[in-house]
């Protein structure tokens, strides 16, 4: 059974930091590209950051320079370090595992991030 379990969300003041984690099980983690997405109330889900099997990363323009995605294949976990948080970063953050080779894509249940004074 595939599971992606996000953690690390919470309430933080503007300018603060959070580190999200997504622990994966039931997949061959090292062959999956991993991504972080977010969805704010009334808005569509949007891509935040991705990291490929070999560690190449991409970021949404809105988070470049503030967020850093990383992965630890030995722990089958992907991370999202979020610094200089802004109120507009408030959203439910989802983890995604995607493999073209396996023709499979999986989602976690999400973790809430709220940035407010």
Topology diagram in text:
Elements: E1 3-7, E2 10-12, E3 18-25, E4 33-39, E5 46-51, E6 57-59, E7 67-72, E8 77-82, E9 91-99, E10 104-107, E11 111-115
How would you describe the overall organization of this protein?
The structure is a single chain. This protein has strands spanning 3-7, 10-12, 18-25, 33-39, 46-51, 57-59, 67-72, 77-82, 91-99, 104-107, 111-115. It is globular, with a radius of gyration of 14 Å. The protein has no helices and eleven strands. Strands 2, 4, 5, 6, 9, 10 and 11 form a seven-stranded mixed beta sheet that branches. It is mainly β.
In round numbers, the mean pLDDT is 97
Order of helices and strands: EEEEEEEEEEE
Question: For this entry, what is the oligomeric state of its chains?
Answer: single chain
Alpha plus pi helix count: 0
Helix content: under 10%
Radius of gyration: 14 Å
The general outline is: globular
Number of strands: 11
Which percent band covers the strand fraction? over 45%
**Largest sheet at a glance?**
7 strands, mixed
Distance between the termini: 40 Å
Question: What structural category characterises the helix and strand content?
Answer: mainly beta
Which runs of at least 5 residues are low in confidence (pLDDT < 50)? none
Summarize the structure.
This protein has strands at residues 3-7, 10-12, 18-25, 33-39, 46-51, 57-59, 67-72, 77-82, 91-99, 104-107, 111-115.
What would the keywords be for this entry?
0% helix; mainly beta; single chain; 117 residues; 4-stranded antiparallel beta sheet; globular; 11 strands
């Amino acid at each position: 059974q595939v599971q992606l379990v996000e953690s690390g969300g919470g309430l933080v003041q503007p300018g603060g930091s959070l580190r999200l984690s997504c622990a994966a099980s039931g997949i061959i983690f090292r062959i999956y590209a991993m991504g972080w997405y977010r969805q704010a109330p009334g808005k569509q889900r949007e891509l935040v950051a991705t990291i490929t099997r070999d560690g190449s990363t991409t970021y949404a323009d809105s988070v470049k320079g503030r967020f850093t995605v990383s992965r630890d294949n030995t722990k089958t976990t992907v991370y999202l370090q979020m610094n200089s948080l802004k109120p507009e970063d408030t959203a439910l953050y989802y983890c995604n595992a995607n493999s073209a080779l396996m023709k499979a894509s999986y989602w976690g249940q999400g973790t809430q991030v709220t940035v407010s004074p």
